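In the current project phase, our protein records have gained a structure token line. A sample record follows, to show the layout:
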Amino acid sequence: MCKRMLKKVKIMEEEDRRQRSRRVLIIGVDGATFDIIKPMMEKGMLETFKRLIENGVHGVLKSTIPPASIPAWQSFMTGKNPGKHGIFDFMTRVENDYHGRLVTSRDLKAKTLWKMASLEGKMCIVIGMTGTYPPEKIKGVLIAGMMAPEGAIYTHPPELTEALNRMGYVKFVSPSEVKDDYELYKKVLEMERTRTKVATKFMREQEWDLFVVMLIGTDTVQHELWAYRDLVESFYREIDAMISQFVENAGDDVDIFIVSDHGFGEFRKYFYVNVWLHQIGLLKYRKVNMDEEGSVKLKRARGKDVSFLYRVFYKLGLTQQNILKILKTLRIDWIRKYLPENIKKKAYSLPQTNLEIDWENSKAFLSSFFGTETQSITINLKGREPKGTVSPEEYEALREYIIRKLKEITDPETGEPIVEEVYRGEELYSGPYADNAPDIIMRLRDGYKTSGSLTPEEVVGSVEKIFGRVKGSHRQYGIFIAYGPDIKRGVEVRGAEIVDIAPTAMHLLGLPIPEDVDGKVLKEIFAEGSEAAEREPKFVPPEYYDRKEEMERIRERAKRIRKKMD
């Protein structure tokens, strides 16, 4: 009897130990693609990626549609589609205005993986994730990523901000603030090295169950420097070395995920959506005076202060559009290709045009409160838009007409369609916030990207004519790699989606999963006989974590009251 009890106690202690030691490390590599990684591996490079792939599982990871960093990272961190978490883009609507504002973490309507883990008593460290400002309170540490304003407190706990600033911690490097390509590369690399130093320090010195760190530099480097394959590959080698440090410092008992929010590829041509809508009679322009309040408001809404110099350029007729026409007339527009980067950046600071959209006479426009990566068109609907022109009765017929016409657009050079697929918002998204989705979402063919510019004379235009080289843009499929004691070895998985990461990580951590997640637990990645494979995922009603959070607030209030009484 006594032996049986001792054996039972030993089994319980072992199970408790396994529960305590189960940890998950997630490394986000923004925009990482197997189209770069695998050819480099074949050339004997990227030893860490190679080791993790050969000794773990890997496969392409389907992003959101569109494959934009926001909403993709929000779907990663919640396991839900934008119709449930409420964020569709970097920008969101502002009431009674045609120009949106940047989203913040307060716009996220679903709980994050780390918040749910915290409510279940797990210690979490989250570093650099896009869209996490202002930082939410979790059990552990959260360092917000890009979009945190300069001078703001971007960490939880708050006192960590000052310490990171002293270390030279950088949240994001803006290409517009760097004079040339090589300086951009160096600044982005230094940002990631500092972030890696901070992350590994936390790994070694803090207790944690869930650790999430994001390396954002791959996105910037690929967008801006895609034409320079040597620099792109050099940066991937640096990322490979950083991942090696994370793996080494995490320990042997950790299950590791490496994920990207989308893939990447060559970007050669713009689709000027507003020019096209103008040509088919659905969008009108009007000439503006830079002194008009509306024009100043327009520029500021896009994050560009209208300076005195800007106004002078405009009054002299020095817009980007007019200078381009002069160069074409002189037949020297080719010279832009050879101008130094700092000269080009100054030229781009000129007023772009003396035109803006005539809202009162337009029926549709490239969504001004969503980014160009979102590739969406908004109907100028009465009752929803400030100066709506399309009645609810006309809405569906107009939307159908635009969708049909989009499918007919071809590249004048190749004769091939440029639009891969077109969706209505309700076809992609479901949930309480699906009505906030764009009216029409496009998925362009690889190599094309939308632009809202009003200045071009053509509907499809070359990127090289503007920048002097090709650039990089997002693709639908990113990367997924899993490695660790609970993970199979040397297996390629298919069908993984970005919404699957949160529920799969929650299962590994032993956390109950909300029933309303859109993602699935990727059971096929678990090693046969592992604890994760043998245990069934536990699902709970969506309000489970709401009740947990309310109890946490009650406990916090009680603590404050007791402190005052003492």
Notes: The first strand starts at residue 23 and ends at 29. DSSP finds 21 helices and 24 strands in the chain.
